[in-house]
Amino acid sequence: MKASRLEVLAKNIANADTPGFKARDVDFQKVLAVQSGIAALTTTHVQHLKTSLVNSDGLVYTNPYNQSLDGNTVEIAMEQAKYGKAAMDYQASLDFIQSRIGSIKRALKGE
Amino acid sequence: MALSDIFAIAGSALAGQSTRLNATASNMANASNVSGNEEDAYKAKRVVFRAVLENEMVGNVMRPAGSLAIDRVMDDPSPHPKLYDPGNPMADDEGYVYKSNVVDVSEMVEMLAAARSYQNNVEVINTAKELMSRTLEVAKS
């Protein structure tokens, strides 16, 4: 999920000069809701149709602080800041995984 | 995989921005060209970008959705300055020559903008590269 957010932000940065391009971002709340299954509508009858919110990828359009004439909503400074933060988040997740692997290894060695 | 797509996306932006730098170089080189009529005078070249909306194949290279492509290279429609210079061999019957419609100052700005966007995408690639190599090293220690 962290890697896909990085990809979305990379797309924004790549298209910072494309006329009419709309910047996007991943909404963590939405992804969380989908993953934990609370995004779908509750059904009270077997014949109710299943809602398809479940396959939402959490992509949202960002609102720019300043409008530009060509309709592009990428604000490069904001995107860079987001990209940097997303990269740190990714590294933090990596560190958690790494320490988990480390503790399992230590437990196996019986140190 | 998402991280490896970043290389293709930022790479397409590098290619696009370097085309833009190329156009700027061409404009600067021809800034003082003159011609005998308005049609033949050098017109500033402008690169128009578009976003790739769905994965597409270019030759045998996959271009992932969201990467940058060049829509077209168009001529700047702004008017050409008309100079009275009857001594010029290019002058028309009335003694006028038409200069290219390149504005040096805005070309310099264009060049800086393209160079900065290029650098941004290089940073994106560097970060993605570092994250990938760190991911590879997770299980090592």
Topology, pairings included?
The complex is a heterodimer of chains A (111) and B (141).
Chain A: H1 2-14, E1 24-26, H2 28-35, E2 59-61, H3 76-109
Antiparallel strand pairs in A: 1-2
Chain B: H1 2-29, E1 34-35, E2 45-51, E3 56-58, E4 61-63, E5 68-75, E6 82-84, E7 96-99, H2 104-136
Antiparallel strand pairs in B: 1-7, 2-5, 3-4, 6-7
Roughly how much helix do the residues of chain B carry, as a percent range? 40-55%
Fraction of residues in β-strands of chain A: 5-15%
Q: Whole-Å distance between the termini of chain B?
A: 24 Å
SSE string of chain B:
HEEEEEEEH
Instruction: Provide the β-strand percentage band of chain B.
Output: 15-25%
Compute the number of helices of chain A: 3
The share of residues in helices of chain A is 40-55%
Instruction: Provide the low-confidence segments of chain A as ranges.
Output: none
Largest interface: A-B, 27 and 34 residues
Structural class of chain A: mainly alpha
Low-confidence blocks of residues of chain B? none
The number of distinct helices of chain B, counting runs of at least 4 residues, comes to 2
What is the count of β-strands of chain B? Answer: 7
Class of secondary structure makeup of chain B: alpha+beta
Q: Give the strand order, joined by hyphens, for the main sheet of chain A.
A: 1-2
Largest sheet of chain A: 2 strands, antiparallel
Q: What would the keywords be for this entry?
A:
heterodimer; A: 111 residues; mainly alpha; two-stranded antiparallel sheet; flat; B: alpha+beta; 3-stranded antiparallel β-sheet; two-stranded antiparallel ribbon
